[in-house]
Structures are given as structure tokens and as C-alpha cells.
Write a structure and sequence with these properties.
It contains four helices and six strands. The protein has one domain: Alpha-Beta Plaits. Helices cover 31% and strands 36% of the residues. The protein has a four-stranded antiparallel beta sheet. The protein has a two-stranded antiparallel sheet with strand order 4-5. It is of the alpha+beta class. It is globular, with a radius of gyration of 15 Å.
Length: 97
């Protein structure tokens, strides 16, 4: 799988901001079929960093209601990538998202 097809975008939350500062962990939305090895290869190829570890989880979509209508948001896969000491990804650091 090509690296640009594996990573769909960043996940930015307050909790992940703290993990990025303290633990060197960055989070991405990834393709549902992507493996941990593919995610690690894609991050190191796209951002020129060294990946130490990858954790993935599938986030279940929430059920939403508008009036009588019920709907469900789609499920998505999230990957949390730990980088080597000294490496960082400028996409998250720059503040321009």
C-alpha cells in the first residue's frame, strides 16, 4: 500500500497534545486495512522520522439522532505512533492546521 493511501490525516485533541509533548506520540487516521508495519513505514517515509512503536485501534462510530431519524457515523482506525528521541513532525508543531 502506498504511504499516501495509508495515512488519511492527523488527529488533534488536548489529550494527544499532552502525549506528544511528554511521550513523543503522534496520532493519525489511517486506512482500515493498514497494518502496524505499513503505518510505521508510511510515517517514516512521509515525515523522514524514525518510528519506535505503533499502536492501532478501531474507533466505533457514534449513533446520532436528528428528530425521528437515527443515523450512525462510520467507524475509523486510529494509529498512535511513538517516535525516536529528538524526532518530531512539523505538521503538529507548526500550529497551522
Amino acid at each position: 500500500m502506498h504511504p499516501t493511501n495509508v495515512i488519511k490525516g492527523p488527529v488533534i485533541t488536548e489529550k494527544l497534545d499532552k502525549a506528544r509533548e511528554k511521550l513523543r506520540q503522534y496520532s493519525f487516521l489511517v486506512d482500515r486495512a493498514a497494518t502496524k508495519h505499513e503505518v510505521a513505514h508510511a510515517v517514516s517515509a512521509l515525515f523522514k522520522v524514525t518510528v519506535e512503536g505503533v499502536r492501532t485501534n478501531i474507533v466505533r462510530g457514534k449513533i446520532k439522532r436528528v428528530g425521528k431519524s437515527m443515523g450512525k457515523r462510520p467507524n475509523f482506525k486510529k494509529a498512535i505512533v511513538t517516535l525516536k528521541v529528538g524526532d518530531k513532525i512539523e505538521l503538529f508543531e507548526g500550529g497551522a492546521v
